[in-house]
Amino acid sequence: MFAGIDIAAERHTLARLDDAGVAIGKPITITEDRDGYDALLRALGPPPVLIAMEATGHYWKNLFAVLTAAGHDVALLNPLIARRFQEASLERTKTDAIDATGLARLAFEKRPAPTHLHDEVAEALRELVRHRDRLRQDFDDRVRQLHRLVDLGFPEFTRYVRSLDSMLATCLLAEYPTAHAFARATPRRVAKLRYDGRHFVGAELAQSLVEAAKRSVGQHHGPAYKLQARHICQDLDTWRRRLAEIEHDIEDLLDTHVLGKLITSIDGIGPQTAARIIAASGDPAHFKSAGAFAAYVGVVPGLRQSGKQTGTRASIGPLGNARLRRALWMPVLTAVKRNPWLRAFYLRLRAAGKPAKLALIAAMRKLLHAVYSVAKHRRPFMIEAEQARAA
User: Fold this and answer.
1) Transposase IS116/IS110/IS902 C-terminal domain: which residues (predicted)?
2) b/e string for 15-54 if b means 16 or more Cβ within 10 A?
3) Coil, strand or helix: which one is 32?
4) Class in CATH terms, 2-110
5) Cα 120-260-349 angle, rounded to 5 deg
């Protein structure tokens, strides 16, 4: 039997097909509770049944665990694949029942491979990495809000303290949120502020800030602006500590993951980047080739040629794991400086006249090939081996 499940927050829809592709009854509704799960298992019958469903948010996780524990084969599909399959059938109406039937039809016709989830450590790394991303997003949002308040109350401040996300900036602005507050302070008092538990602001910077505040064009010094600035600075200090804690937790957890530690043997890939790779892909060696792994990330050229239109340069498309692709950008910039093998590859492309961005994308793909090689052979990265393979 084949089945398709349309996932929702509180109710799922199940459609079933027999081994000839004929529908078994009408699609049924499954509630997200014990009674609903028991009804689902009874409707599926004895395992194994190949079940197709989309990886929608987090709503599929409990369902996946129950179905696989019962012995069924579950294929988690990219929603784009399911949508394209439905479009090919020229289906114009969209309902949960039609979507579930389409997924069951896809399972019957395409026979997708069952999905195997990451190991426990990889799953924990995924949760920690996503939690860190949310904290970082909150932190960056607060920095943007602080920029607004500084622009209104003391726009000259950033001439002397460049980064508002630094401990120096939050220490100063929490105590003196506006130019008016700075102007009323003495340089000596400002200089004695300690911003990281060890370093003081210093007399030179304090004198410059107080003098600039007295000539500032900032016009917003009221209690509302002061209160917002203080609260934002307190939030930034809190989130900064939380980010440091979770990054430490990620590194400790990565130390227990053999593959994660091996990936860090590649110059330019640190613990945080290795954790992201493991969190996103589990084990890169599960891909059939290095090219397939690069395609999963989305670092593949998409050449478009049709009739008289002959594209001469292929750009990368939007498909692939965009989050991991973005996370790899800065490590690639570091790797082309620190990794002799990758730097030589990058400089060779530049010498051949390739644009800098194209050469960096190619270097990212090459770096992913190195990650795949480490994962496949379970050995630390060796430049000599990669150079011999490239030759």
Assistant:
1) 261-346
2) bbbeeeeeeeeebbebeeeeebbebbbebbeeeebbbbbb
3) coil
4) alpha beta
5) 135
Which amino acid belongs to residue 194? R
- Sequence-ordered list of residues with C-beta below 8 angstroms from that of 183, at least 6 positions apart, any chain: 210, 213, 214, 216
Average pLDDT, rounded, for the chain: 91
76 neighbors 53 (Cβ within 8 angstroms): yes
Ranges for all domains in the chain classified under CATH 1.10.287.4070: 124-250
In the chain, ranges of CATH 3.30.420.40 domains: 2-110
**Sheet strands (E) in the chain:** 2-6, 11-17, 28-31, 50-54, 73-77, 301-302, 305-306, 309-310, 315-316
Q: Which fold has domain 124-250?
A: Helix Hairpins (1.10.287)
**Structural tokens at position 26:** 């009408």
**Which 3 state secondary structure label does DSSP give 185?**
coil
pLDDT in tens, 217-261: 999 999 999 999 999 999 999 999 999 999 999 999 999 999 999
Helix H or strand E encompassing 147: helix 120-153
Determine the Cα angle at 332 with ends 328 and 336, to 5°.
175
- Evaluate whether 172 touches 190 at the Cβ level (below 8 Å): yes
One-letter identity of residue 94: K
Helix (H) or strand (E) holding 140: helix 120-153
Q: What is the mean pLDDT of residues 266-286?
A: 92
Phi-psi region of 378 (alpha: psi -120 to 50; beta: other; left: phi over 0): left
* 316-339 b/e (C-beta count within 10 Å ≥ 16 → b): beeebbeebbebbeebbeebbeeb
CA atoms of 117 and 64, how far apart (whole Å): 10
Quote the pTM value: 0.80
